[in-house]
Please model this.
Amino acid sequence: MRLGEFELIRRLIKELPPPSEKVVVGVGDDTAVVKAGRGYRLLTTDALVEGSHFKRAWKETVEEFFFLLGKKLVNVCASDVASMGGEPKVGLINLGVPPDGKEVELIELYRGVGEAAMELKVDIVGGDTVKSGTLFFDMTLIGESPSYMLRSSAKPGELVGITGTAGDSRGGLELLERGRSEPKYLIERFLSPKARVREGREALKLGVKCGTDVSDGLLFNLGTIAESSKVRIEVESSLIPLSQELTETFGKEKALEFALYGGEDYELIITFPERLIKKVEEIGFKVIGEVKEGSGVFLDGRKVRTKGYDHFKEEE
Ligand code: MG
Ligand code: MG
Ligand code: MG
Model:
């Protein structure tokens, strides 16, 4: 495959009919937005595929591996809904079972799906089970919201905020690749991220208009805001929140690299007017930069590449 993930999507949607008037936001944001009564329905889907997103061998290192993976799928989808400011509601799950798939592992996976669904108050109402060469499972999730945040709503003069800490998930992945099981905190940040549903809803309630989640790397996801909002985003590396576990395990420099380019943190990024700073900090966001007129993403005053990890593109 020569095309990157996003170029491929752009090419594929050319084959689809243009959306009807009930579609408020189509392809290109964290979720689609469809008008529903007085509010909106938010639709998203995500897949976890053996080889691309996880290795079955990791079950040897991590206790409850399949359970955590099950929780991850639901939270990854819920994170997209959270990034719009919505509440996840109803989901469908497809499961691809390989010839050597073990029942106990699939049951563990669904125990994880079940626990996350309970925590997030999501009803799982169906899906499909198919034979497959590799183990995969995917989820389609529908959320609801009276209104929504978009990647394309950032305005010059606003501040940029992020929840939690960045880079932990990439750190956890690195540990798994090295066959290590400690620190458990980092591994769980990779295998079992928590969707920031509360923070997203509260930001929306405050009147925040722009949000996304950190799925592909902080700089990459800031880049999607900069590009779709046609603004410049300036961040300070010293303001990017890093966990003690990450800096102690990998050192400060590597920790920052993971925070900037590693994906799958599923933290929320918002941009908001300065007058909201106190309230935004109260609900759990930390300021890492500001929105300016112009284009691109700047780190400590220097323009940076915003490419995250794209598993579609062949290595150059
Ligand atoms: Mg997203
Ligand atoms: Mg997603
Ligand atoms: Mg995706």
